[in-house]
């Protein structure tokens, strides 16, 4: 009987590798099932399948493209100041080696395969977030083309520039876990893409009642708890700073949720669970660029800001500005919850980053403005301008390529938009009726009730007629039965 020797390299820290794989799995759960449930519950019943499928497709397509070209473009050897050389990471001798970021001159004490999967989960959720702005009218074929193109030409550029050792990394822009790379970029793409695709049907815009708020709450809970891996995994180690990031993430989120709820109470006189979930999301987004480099009080301040400013953006600007009411139909408000909250969090990093937090994270920045480094504020603004500008341009170019070169419509037909899931996918979310091809339909409860009422009425008519013939005008038949309160009771 042969034995197999399991080789543990000197550079491998099994604890860090375990945490990194766990964090990656938590982030992956945020997309499937987290965002699938959140989106499916927030839309009308006729869009539940389509909204889930857009997320599900993006999750699968991103993984394939990421391993073939995307990872090395985002974290590999420098090709240009904003992107690495794209190439596959599929060979076994690559996947087993130690993870390194050559352009950033950094290494991790776990294998490259772990790093590839961890960063894939971030890339996948970025595309899933963009879908939230396009729901209820984007042609699914156009979405299938959009996902790999946007991943390569937009996401990978932002990831390399800020995380992979590109020019913004070298300048000292701080994005702890994706406030810029993920949320600001997805919010910008959602805003710009929604303009290119055009608005939903007017009937859908007027009446877009969530079809299952319980699903929404379940998806939101997965999103919140999954964020522990989202921010806690970015030190690339089970380090003290990972614990700080997890604590600050939850603290900021709780404050933002409560602040948003207070805003709803002040202006609408009613607390809303959907509003509270929006506040939760803006808190999660706002703390993401800052999680492990700000103190707890900084996380509280960020939470207050993300509970107020995106609320104003969504409930005042989003409902009154002609830009949003006539031109940019962002279905689930990704512009407000991710573009606004992401840029806000990134800016506040420049104010509240601490030198101790930066050192614990392994970066050389001497903190933010509170530690006398006012330059960090301007660096954060430069990062915002680049991410917004790059994504606005490339989202537009990709939309034009799909529409004018591929000749694929960006929008569904009017008929498909009226029908929804059944026209697009041949499926419906809730199949509680028995009216299925190949089966004999059973009588519904409503029909049973109608038949019972008709039967009882006929019994009453017969019995009353019999009593009249027998000279008992009171309508009571002591021998055969009695009529009591409209119900026939047999003796």
UniProtKB/TrEMBL annotation:
Q: Which Gene3D superfamilies match?
A: Ammonium transporter AmtB like domains (1.10.3430.10)
Does the keyword Repeat belong to this entry?
A: no
Entries under SUPFAM superfamilies matching the protein: Ammonium transporter
| Top-rank lineage group of the source organism | Eukaryota
**Stretches with biased composition (Basic and acidic residues):** 479-491
Q: Where in the cell is it found?
A: Cell membrane; Membrane
GO: which molecular function terms? Answer: ammonium channel activity
Provide the membrane topology annotation: Multi-pass membrane protein
Keyword entries, A-Z: Ammonia transport, Membrane, Transmembrane, Transmembrane helix, Transport
Task: Name the segments for region: Disordered.
Answer: 471-491
Sequence intervals crossing the membrane = 20-40, 52-71, 116-136, 143-168, 180-198, 210-230, 242-261, 273-291, 297-318, 339-365, 377-402
CC per GO annotation = plasma membrane
The cross-references to InterPro entries, in alphabetical order and at most eight, read:
Ammonium/urea_transptr (IPR029020), Ammonium_transpt (IPR001905), Ammonium_transpt_CS (IPR018047), NH4_transpt_AmtB-like_dom (IPR024041), RhesusRHD (IPR002229)
Sequence ranges assigned to domain Ammonium transporter AmtB-like in this UniProt record? 19-430
Hey, which family's this protein in? Belongs to the ammonia transporter channel (TC 1.A.11.2) family.
NCBIfam families, per the entry: amt (TIGR00836)
Name the UniProt record assigns to this protein: Ammonium transporter
Source species taxonomy? Eukaryota, Fungi, Dikarya, Ascomycota, Pezizomycotina
């Amino acid at each position: 009987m042969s034995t197999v020797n399991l080789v543990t390299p000197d550079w491998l820290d099994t604890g860090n590798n375990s945490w990194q794989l766990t964090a990656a799995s938590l982030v992956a759960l945020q997309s499937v099932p987290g965002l699938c449930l959140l989106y499916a519950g927030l839309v009308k019943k006729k869009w539940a399948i389509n909204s889930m499928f857009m997320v599900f497709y993006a999750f699968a397509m991103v993984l394939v493209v990421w391993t073939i070209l995307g990872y090395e473009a985002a974290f590999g050897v420098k090709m240009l100041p904003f992107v690495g050389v794209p190439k596959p990471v599929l060979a076994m001798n690559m996947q087993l080696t130690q993870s390194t970021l050559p352009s950033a001159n950094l290494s991790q004490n776990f294998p490259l395969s772990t790093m590839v999967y961890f960063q894939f989960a971030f890339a996948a959720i970025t595309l899933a977030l963009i879908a939230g702005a396009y729901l209820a009218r984007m042609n699914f074929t156009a979405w299938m083309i959009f996902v790999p193109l946007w991943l390569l030409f937009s996401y990978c550029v932002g990831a390399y520039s800020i995380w992979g050792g590109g020019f913004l990394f070298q300048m000292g822009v701080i994005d702890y876990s994706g406030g810029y790379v993920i949320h600001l970029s997805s919010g910008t793409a959602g805003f710009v893409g929604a303009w290119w695709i055009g608005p939903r049907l007017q009937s859908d815009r007027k009446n877009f009642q969530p079809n299952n708020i319980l699903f929404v709450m379940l998806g939101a809970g997965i999103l919140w708890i999954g964020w522990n891996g989202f921010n806690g995994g970015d030190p690339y180690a089970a380090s003290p700073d990972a614990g700080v990031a997890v604590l600050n993430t939850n603290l900021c989120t709780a404050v933002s949720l409560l602040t948003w709820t207070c805003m709803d109470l002040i202006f609408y006189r009613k607390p809303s669970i959907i509003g509270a979930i929006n506040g939760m999301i803006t808190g999660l987004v706002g703390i993401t660029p800052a999680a492990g480099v700000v103190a707890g009080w900084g996380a509280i301040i960020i939470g207050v800001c993300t509970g107020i400013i995106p609320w104003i953006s969504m409930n005042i600007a989003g409902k009154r500005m002609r830009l949003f009411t006539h031109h940019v139909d962002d279905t689930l408000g990704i512009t407000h919850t991710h573009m606004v909250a992401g840029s806000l969090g990134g800016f506040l990093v420049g104010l509240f980053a601490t030198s101790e937090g930066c050192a614990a994270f392994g970066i050389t920045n001497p903190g933010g403005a509170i530690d006398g480094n006012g330059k960090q504020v301007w660096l954060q603004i430069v990062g915002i301008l680049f991410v917004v500008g790059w994504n606005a341009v490339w989202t537009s170019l990709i939309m034009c390529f799909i529409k004018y070169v591929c000749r694929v419509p960006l929008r569904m037909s009017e008929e498909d938009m009226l029908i929804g899931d059944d026209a697009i996918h041949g499926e419906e979310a809730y199949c509680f009726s028995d009216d299925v091809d190949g089966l004999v339909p059973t009588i519904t409860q409503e029909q049973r009730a109608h038949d019972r009422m008709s039967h009882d009425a006929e019994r009453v008519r017969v019995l009353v007629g019999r009593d009249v013939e027998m000279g008992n005008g009171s309508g009571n038949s002591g021998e055969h039965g009695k009529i009591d309160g409209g119900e026939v009771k047999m003796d």
